[in-house]
Amino acid sequence: MAYPATKTKSSSRKPQRPGRFTAFTRTLWLLFGGGVLGAILYVLAVSINFLGLFGRMPNLKTLENPKSELASEVYSADGALMGKYFHENRTPAEYEDLPQHLIDALIATEDSRFEQHSGIDAKATGRVAAGLVTGGSGGGGSTLTQQLAKVLFRTRGDLNDGTLNKVPGVRMLVTKTKEWILAVRLERNYTKREILRMYLNTNDYGSNAFGINTASKTFFNKKPKDLTVSEAATLVGVLNAPSRFSPKFNPDRSKRRRNWVLLQMNKYGYLPEASLRADTLKPIKLDYSVENQNEGIAPYFRVEVSKMLKAWAKETDHDLYADGLKIYTTIDSRMQKYAESALAEHMKLQQKWFDAHWKGQQPWRDETGKVIPNFIATSIRRTERYKSLNNRFDGNKDSINYYLRKKYKMTVFSWQGEKEMVMSPLDSLAYYKRYLQAGFMAMNPLNGQIKAWVGGTNYKYFKYDHVKQGRRQPGSTFKPIVYTAAIDQGYSPCYQRPDVATTFPAVAGRESYTPKNFEGGFSGRTFTLRQALARSMNSITAWVVQKVGPETVVQYAKRLGITSPIEAVPAVGFGSSDVSMFELCGAYGTFVNKGVWTGPMMVTRIEDKNGNVLREFVPQTKEALSEETAYLMTYMLQASTTEPGGTSVILKTGFKFPYEMGGKTGTTSNYSDAWFMGITPDLVCGMWVGGEDRSIHFRTGAYGQGARLALPIYGVFMRKVYADKGIGISTAPFPKPTQPLSIEIDCSRYYGGQRDTIPYDQKLNQTDLQDLDDQDI
């Protein structure tokens, strides 16, 4: 068909075919519109994880309550932070605790347009895209909010479970898309302040420090609000690469990075030129200390508490190491400090004497005093190192022995401080076997609250706990349980018995048994039961066991909270069965608490991270003795400190305590275990000293008895406790029963006011504990 002719004005422009421009623009619009629609559909598909292609996305509840791991904190009864339980050591800071120059440093360095965007910085993103097209870097495009999303929701780990995430090129696109989506959602749900706070509280600063609170303490021993501009810039600089820019391990690189942060602050108007010059010249001065489980208050106690808490957490669906719980314990941080100090002070001296005692000799001996052959070679088979080597080399002895004898440079414990030595694993084991070990526990018998717990001489090097985990023969510290049975069956503290041999006849499978006194013989003199307990006389204790029966003694032990197996044998009264200090403290507490056994208590309450109480604890109690029997036992135990010949008189004559207190020493055969138990109206203390192995000990009572090796820890501890008036420990007499006693306890009426003395009592020296003696076996 021919078009009709028309007249047109002449023009230099070429005529276009009808509709060509319209078609071109339509195409452009279709392409653009289709691209936008495609982008929208793509984002929607990622958001809902269409067909499982892109991986999971956090739901609304998770987005509103993003969870990062928070360390659970352990507090003492007087409010001191004792330590933490954590996978990631993180304790959140409030926004008000963050100094403005820290916020300025972060924004200037990581996201200068943070206040202007809503999660995605279009300008920065475009710059990155242009860089990819042109082959340049384009700089970083992630906003602070995107970085927060990456850390909070683990976009590059936990959420990468879609089918397309396995395709290398597509994986990063999907990941970045998720971060964009989450960043926008975070901006809708939180204020800018909240996002900044979460960012600083969430990130890793290196050195096992997660969050600004922990980082400030780790590197500068400060709270965030006390950081200087230079220190704040240092920590912000670390965020980019915690290992690379660590001020501890890469100080020069860290300083350069800090100065770059300061330049950024100046560039964006946060730091004046004069301050910039001054701060860039400053050195980085660290006060560096990494928090770990070896440090803090009462580490042995915290391990035992964690065992209980893990069981509770499992039952209640909590995570002890990530939920930011607040655990309030019974420990008094001041008493704990005094206990640790007293034990260290005493053990440092005892180790010096022990080393001199065995100088040039091997201390591991059998019952006849002979060196135990292959002791170290046998002992090392029980170590984790040996088990690891055995698995590694499939039991090949040559390979195992090669590495057991190979010398290494290692840091070892000593009472003079850590020292570097070169030794093999066999050498190291022999070195540590020569160290004496110790344990100490103090508790309030009226409510069961444990006030101090020292499980060993140094938790970093000796993890084994000698308070509850360890069980050893208690020696004569078990005797009060024997006398409790006698008192309860009608015997008076003033009942008299001669110091003569008592023989347990032979029975099937067991020979006759005649316990001897500490000095070996029998005086024939008459003593009251109170005197006999004070002097720890085995002859009279044996007679009491024979009268009440070993089975009855076992029954009373269980009534007083002893849960370890106790054999009903003639030697039961001399501590022949192993028990823990934890159990003994509970048993002695019954005497002070008017006959009510109160289980030792470690925790008073647990709170969640917001301060809501999750669990409160009350002491476990039971009626074990009559009030009168309990009081008579406190009266009996006081004799140890007041009667001539009492094994604990040094507390009065040497330490010169003017207050009422009771005690009982204990020493086992060959001096393998030295014990002391002390009581006052509101405190029961137990302590033990000995070798890691029972074959390692002193050879004489002059050094190895309970009065010499254990009791002084109590004296030093109580001296410190009494001196601290803020603790408020009672100095009053033991309270008397509410009802009048049914028996007379003034024993002078029974023996005309005459008190026997024994020759060794004259050896007591108020300033030298070395000559103290004991009658325990």
Short description:
The protein is of the alpha+beta class and 777 residues long. Helices cover 40% and strands 10% of the residues.
Characterization of the model:
With 777 residues, this protein is an alpha+beta fold. A 5-stranded mixed beta sheet has the order 2-1-3-11-12, with helices on one face. A 5-stranded antiparallel beta sheet has the order 7-6-16-15-14, with helices on both faces. It has a two-stranded antiparallel sheet with strand order 4-5. It is elongated. The N and C termini lie far apart (131 Å). Residues 1-18, 131-139 and 752-777 have low confidence and may be disordered.
Number of helices: 27
Overall shape: it is: elongated
Nearest-angstrom radius of gyration? 37 Å
Summarize the biggest pleated sheet. 5 strands, mixed
Q: Looking at the chains present, what oligomeric state does this protein adopt?
A: single chain
Q: Going across the major beta sheet, what is the strand order?
A: 2-1-3-11-12
Low-confidence segments = 1-18, 131-139, 752-777
- Cα-to-Cα separation, first versus last residue: 131 Å
Q: Which range does the strand content fall in?
A: 5-15%
Average of pLDDT: 88
Helix content estimate = 25-40%
Q: By helix and strand content, what is the structural category? A: alpha+beta
Number of strands: 16
